[in-house]
Amino acid sequence: MHPSAEAKTVAPPVQGEGVELVDVVKRFGGTVAVSGASLSLPRHGRLSIVGPSGCGKSTILSMICGLTDASEGVVRVEGATTMKERLARCAWMPQRDLLLPWRDVAGNAALALENHGVSKKEAREQVLDLIERFGLSGFEKKYPHQLSGGMRQRVSFLRTMAAGKDVLLFDEPFGALDSITRADLQQWLRLTLDEAPRTTVLVTHDVEEALLLGDTVVVMSARPGRIVQRIEVELPQTDSRRELLRHPAFAELRDELLSLLEVTE
Ligand SMILES: Nc1ncnc2c1ncn2[C@@H]1O[C@H](COP(=O)(O)OP(=O)(O)OP(=O)(O)O)[C@@H](O)[C@H]1O
Ligand SMILES: [Mg+2]
Asked: Into how many domains does the chain fold?
């Protein structure tokens, strides 16, 4: 995708900071889901969150995007602290694509624009350009059941990008895909974000994915989740996924993360 694709989005890119959590606690009734999480991510920074199941990763994403509020502490998204303002700034891409089965690719991709009041016809025209940039040309009129899992996730991502939000939240976006498609999409997402930068928070169970897609990785402890380590990912600048995976610095970071996860689980 080319950076000028941003011109097609509805909302202008928002200026300001990225995402910040200060001493955030989240309780559900008597359950402490997140206990004292602080983190800060600059605008267009890429953060990966790893941690054992149930440690509060999805809860952190819900708090960032204003679907739920912190019980204690402050959540800031581009300077905004209210749930409504946070919601307006974030787009969420879930693990399972939530494409509407009765809409074709272009119709699904256009949904976010329609939600912003753009007419159906105009929204469809606007996303056609993005469809081409996302390598989905020729599939505009196909329905979700006619697409592979990887393609469905690409449409889902396209829809997320078309919403024109500056903050993208990914909750295990490739978790349901086979390893080859997953590798392919990780690489594709990396290059797409290089061309059209966004502030991204990615939750993943996959340590390699966390390193490939994050410039910072935070490791959470088992419930009640705390941030136990923050790792800055300093790796050589290369587009080649294979080269990165083979690099000794990558192996070192992967081992460090795996041993931290062994301790936290
Ligand atoms: N709406 C809710 N009501 C009550 N408890 C909840 C709610 N949402 C999450 N929890 C609890 O909070 C804890 C953290 O859940 P969360 O879904 O954030 O974990 P997670 O790290 O995303 O796990 P997984 O890796 O399995 O997706 C869990 O114990 C969960 O049961
Ligand atoms: Mg989760």
From this structure: 1
